[in-house]
């Protein structure tokens, strides 16, 4: 079977591997689409500190069940369209004992700490499958990235009395915008790209600010009547936006970090105490976040055509990754299409 391999930073190869054999409790799926995410871009650039090369990337899955081993429930049938939870959990670490499996100390995410799903076939434990027959193949490949933003909103404890600032309007930020809006919050979206900000409004943001053109602090002060946003969700992972989140959040506000910076970040720590902030990390997503995304998608409100930048053949991945690396603002979501293979 055909697979896309990142042998080292900046390199992409198409390789032939054997189709996996399913064992007890496993399901064999044929991949339809795999979304390429910012983590994959970091891996291509050599900027992902968690990855070990060579690696098959990809964990945003849309697939079809083609076979199953024994000890798999009857309701999982051949031909079902599925997505999958791409994380592992050990069940024994402090996170798992608190039922926060998304932050397992020993988690291995597909395409990062272990090989991913950018290949024609994949064997998965049946417990990792999520199915919804109302969703299309394209929608299923967007469930995982949106769920990460949904989880960040949960971590921020967002309610309908909050003003929420989302910094970064890629796919993860899009999930945060949708979920915060669904909870009744007033949402401010910030990015450097006007096209992404236009999409952010379609997703529920009441206000948008282009931080490359407008003075962000002044804009936020005007929108919030000089109070600052109650919750800031940082979905970029740069030192500058890490600091901005602390500076702009309201006194006694909450800051949620999704992105992480490869470089150290210097803070004016007096703001932590002076503002009495709640500063929280947000990692991956829980099963209930996946379900919430799929429930939202069932409403038909997701503007799918605005989110998918391009569908690629596996052989086109190398060129597309280089173009994305050179001009990241031009891409919202890339799909690798295995459906015809």
Automatic annotation (TrEMBL):
Keywords assigned: Oxidoreductase
Alcohol dehydrogenase-like N-terminal domain sequence ranges: 24-130
CDD domains in the cross-refs: Zn_ADH7 (cd08261)
Every Alcohol dehydrogenase-like C-terminal domain range: 172-297
Coiled coil stretches, renumbered: none
Taxonomy, superkingdom: Bacteria
GO MF annotation list: oxidoreductase activity
Protein's name according to its UniProt entry: 2-desacetyl-2-hydroxyethyl bacteriochlorophyllide A dehydrogenase
Gene source species: Arachidicoccus rhizosphaerae
């Amino acid at each position: 079977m055909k697979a896309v391999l990142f042998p080292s930073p900046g390199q992409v190869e198409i390789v032939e591997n054997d189709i996996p054999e399913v064992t007890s409790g496993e399901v064999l799926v044929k991949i339809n689409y795999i979304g390429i995410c910012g983590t994959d871009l970091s891996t291509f650039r050599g900027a992902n500190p968690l990855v070990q090369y060579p690696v098959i990337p990809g964990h945003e899955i849309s697939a079809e069940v083609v076979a199953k081993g024994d000890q798999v429930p009857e309701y999982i049938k051949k031909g079902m369209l599925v997505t999958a939870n791409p994380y592992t959990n050990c069940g024994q670490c402090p996170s798992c004992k608190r039922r926060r499996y998304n932050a397992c100390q020993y988690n291995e995410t597909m395409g990062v700490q272990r090989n991913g799903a950018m290949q024609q076939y994949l064997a998965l434990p049946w417990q990792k499958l999520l199915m919804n027959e109302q969703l299309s193949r394209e929608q299923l490949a967007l469930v995982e990235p949106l769920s990460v933003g949904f989880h960040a909103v949960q971590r921020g404890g967002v309610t309908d009395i909050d003003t929420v600032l989302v910094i970064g309007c890629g796919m993860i930020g899009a999930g945060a915008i949708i979920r915060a809006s669904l909870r009744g919050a007033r949402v401010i979206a910030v990015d450097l790209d006007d096209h992404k900000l236009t999409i952010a409004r379609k997703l529920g943001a009441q206000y948008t600010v282009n931080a490359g053109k407008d003075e962000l602090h002044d804009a936020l002060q005007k929108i919030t009547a000089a109070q600052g946003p109650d919750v800031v969700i940082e979905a970029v992972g740069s030192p500058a936006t890490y600091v901005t989140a602390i500076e702009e959040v309201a006194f006694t506000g909450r800051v949620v970090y999704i992105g992480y910076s490869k470089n150290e970040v210097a803070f004016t720590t007096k703001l932590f105490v002076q503002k009495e902030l709640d500063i929280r990390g947000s990692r991956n997503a829980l099963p209930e976040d996946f379900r919430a995304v799929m429930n939202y998608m069932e409403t038909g409100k997701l503007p799918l055509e605005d989110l998918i930048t391009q569908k690629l053949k596996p052989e086109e991945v190398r060129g597309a990754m280089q173009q994305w690396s050179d001009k990241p603002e031009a891409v919202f979501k890339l799909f690798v299409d295995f459906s015809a293979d």
